[in-house]
Amino acid sequence: MSALEVNKILASIIIAILVVVIISHLGDILIDVDNDNLTETAYKIEIEENQEILGATLNNDINIEPISSLLLSASSAKGQKIYKKCGSCHNYEKNGMDKVGPSLWNIINRPKADIAGYNYSKALAEFGGVWNYEELAAFLYKPKDFMEGTKMNFAGLKKVQDRADLVLFLREQSDNPAELP
Ligand code: HEC
What are the pLDDT digits (tens) for 151-164? Predict the structure, then answer.
């Protein structure tokens, strides 16, 4: 065996040992991270995100003006015109077929996600409660903010007068319109 060959064999043995040592240390480092640091970091991020969500919700609450005081003087004729923005996806007639979105007949104080046979998103199906005047108006301000995960792709109605006019119009699409607030 030449000296060169002996060297080669020695070198491969040393490399093999080095690799084993490095891998076992790597393992230690990874397990360390798993046990302590990771759990701690995950917890921290969770808190920060919650605070962010809380902040966003608070901001929205401040921005969304209530419609109740405007309903008495609102115009359902104007509301019907504004409804054109909804009409591509929703019917409002009694016994109207569901389109991309569910029928809006009798929507005021109707339980959320109440149309049998309509395939609601999980977000809306599990939201709970009824569509009272203010919740409906807040939803229409910016649907995806009010209900994270809704599949209603609509940017929203930013003017409080538009929301009041539209909601007044929708209220009349019922055999028994709900009392005004
Ligand atoms: C691009 C289509 C689209 C437009 C435009 C649209 N919607 Fe929707 N809407 C939907 C879909 C889809 C859903 C079902 C959402 C879900 O399951 O998350 C929905 C759900 C709703 C619901 C909940 C109904 C229930 O049974 O709980 C209301 C109320 C509503 N829309 C009102 C409106 C109004 C009012 C407008 C007009 C300002 C409008 N939508 C515009 C697609 C649309």
Answer: 999 999 999 999 99
